[in-house]
Amino acid sequence: QAKPLTALEGKLVTTRGDCPLLKIGGREQALSANTPYLLHTLQDKRLDGREVRLEGLAKPDGSFEVQWLYTIHDGKLFKVRYFCATCNIVALEPGLCVCCQQPTELQEIPKD
After folding, report:
1. Rounded-to-integer distance, Cα 96 and Cα 94, Å
2. What pTM did the predictor assign?
3. CA 96 to CA 19: how far, in whole Å?
């Protein structure tokens, strides 16, 4: 039986090494991810300081394992994706386009 997901909201901190953090009030929560592409997105410097909603599970080591990531603008949730306008290709994580090798653009798409 799967555990229900917990939701956390706060500011994403990507500037401290490989371990992204979520600032909630006065404390910082260490983050991990269940997939490499999600971890790479959590580490994307373009998301540093953004208001986010993370859904996942608290781990025994004290970290929070993220399974879903949304950015928040004016109380609305947005999905994060990466896009190459040259090749019209969507990617799941930051980096270079798999086709033309140019940097992909961060896009935020309304959740609904």
Report:
1. 7
2. 0.90
3. 22
Per the prediction, the chain carries an average pLDDT of 93
Residues with Cβ < 8 Å from 34, sequence gap 6 or more? 56, 65, 66, 67
Sequential DSSP letters for the chain: -PPPPEEEEEEEE--STT--EEEETTEEEEEEESSHHHHHHHT-GGGTT-EEEEEEEE-TTS-EEEEEEEEEETTEEEEEEEEETTTTEEESSSSB-TTT-PBPEEEEEE--
Residue 45 CB burial class (10 angstroms; 0-12, 13-18, ≥19): exposed
CA angle 37, 110, 86 (to 5 degrees): 60
pLDDT, one tens digit per residue, over 39-66 is 999 999 999 999 999 999 999 999 999 9
Q: How far apart are CA 39 and CA 43, in angstroms?
A: 6
Residue 21 has pLDDT above 90, yes or no: yes
